[in-house]
Write a structure and sequence with these properties.
This protein is of the alpha+beta class and 198 residues long. The protein has four helices and seven strands. The protein has three domains: 115 residues, Immunoglobulin-like (Sandwich), CATH 2.60.40; 47 residues; 32 residues, no CATH class. The strands form two sheets. Strands 2, 3, 5, 6 and 7 form a five-stranded antiparallel beta sheet that branches. Strands 1-4 form a two-stranded antiparallel sheet.
């Protein structure tokens, strides 16, 4: 943890040093009020004569990644009105980069700053609503399946009762008489038969 802290502190110091000593240094004092969808004037002190590009970057100060090109081919006038896109993600590790279009090795950076964005919060709310709707739909399907299964079970019950009622005492009596008749030619079987009356 200590190594990581020292590493980021060193990278941050290097970024600050580059800002003050490199070409076209930024001159804004406060970057804490930048918000998505809200205009912000970027200012710098021109030290080169050719066109420049402004780039939004973020991440590890020692390995910044490009988020988007704000503008390219700009006259090096020292000022540009920028409105961050409303879809930009809320974060605290953004920075601005200025590049000399004639020589891409001539660059400068701002210190890192936060960008406030309501867009990120809106997307989270949409996700929760979509998830809730899907869960409700699953509950409705489950309830319907249980209801249908119960109705099928109830409809089968009368068939079972009808089948039981069909086995009348008359049929049982007829079966016993036929059984006794089978012993007429074999009396010894009647002695062993548990169905025959004693």
């Amino acid at each position: 943890m200590r190594f990581t802290t020292v590493f980021f502190a060193s990278a941050f110091t290097a970024l600050a040093a580059a800002q003050s000593s490199a070409a076209n240094p930024f001159t804004n004092i406060d970057y804490t009020s930048i918000s998505a969808g809200k205009a912000f004037t970027i200012t710098w002190s021109p030290t080169t004569t050719g066109a420049v590009s402004l780039v939004l970057v973020k991440g590890n100060p020692a390995a910044l990644t490009t988020v988007s090109t704000i503008a390219s081919g700009l006259d090096n006038s020292g000022s540009f009105n920028w409105t961050p896109d409303s879809s930009i993600a809320k974060g605290s590790d953004y920075a601005l980069k200025i590049v000399d279009d004639a020589d891409a090795t001539i660059v400068n950076y701002t210190l890192q700053f936060p960008i406030d964005s309501a867009g990120a919060a809106d997307s989270v709310v949409s996700s929760v609503v979509a998830s809730t709707t899907a869960n409700d739909a699953n509950k409705e399907i489950t309830a319907l399946d249980i209801k249908t299964s119960t109705e099928i079970t109830k409809s089968a019950a009368p068939d079972i009762m009808t089948s039981t009622a069909d086995a009348s005492p008359t049929d049982a009596s007829t079966a016993r008489r036929q059984h006794h008749a089978s012993h007429r030619h074999h009396p010894e079987r009647e002695l062993l038969c548990f169905l025959c009356p004693r």
